[in-house]
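anyone seen this seq b4? input:
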Amino acid sequence: MIKLLRVDHRLIHGQVALTWSNALDIDCILVANDDVVNNSIQKTTLKLAAPHNVKVVIKNIEDSIESINTGKTDKYKLLIVVQNIKDAYRLVKGVDSLNSVNLGGVKEVPGSQSLTHSVFVTEVDREYLKEMIADNVDVYAQQVPTDVKQDIKHLM
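predicted toks r here
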C-alpha cells in the first residue's frame, strides 16, 4: 500500500527517515531515481539514513513504475521518495493508483521561484504541476507531518 509519494531533493534524511516514517507507520522506502540507482556510495548513504526497521529499495523511475503496477510493492506500507517534480510527474503518469504528491523540499535553482519556504519551482516544474492538478492529483506542500498542508494550486 502506497502511503505517500514525496518530492524531496535530499531523498532520505532526518525528516523522511524519522518523522514521516513514524507518522505513516511505513516499513519500506522506495527511492525512485535514475541517477542514484547507479551510484553505490549514494545508495549506501541513503540506506544508512533510514531507520533500522525500514527496508530501503532503490530503483530507476521505469522499474519503480513496473514494480508498483505488477504488485511487487503491495506487501509493503510504502513511502516513495523522488528527487524532483519531473520524477513525481513520471510516476503519477505511469501508476494509476497514485493520486497525490507531497512537495517536501524542492531546491532553489537559477530561474526558480518560491512557492513556499522549502519549495522552489521552474517554469517546467509549473507545467508538470498544472498537468497533475488538471488530472485531479492532489498536489500539496507539507514539509513535516505536523505542518498544515498547503494546496499547490492556490500557491501558483
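The helical segments are 14-24, 40-49, 61-69, 85-94, 123-134. The first strand starts at residue 2 and ends at 8. kinda curious what u guys think
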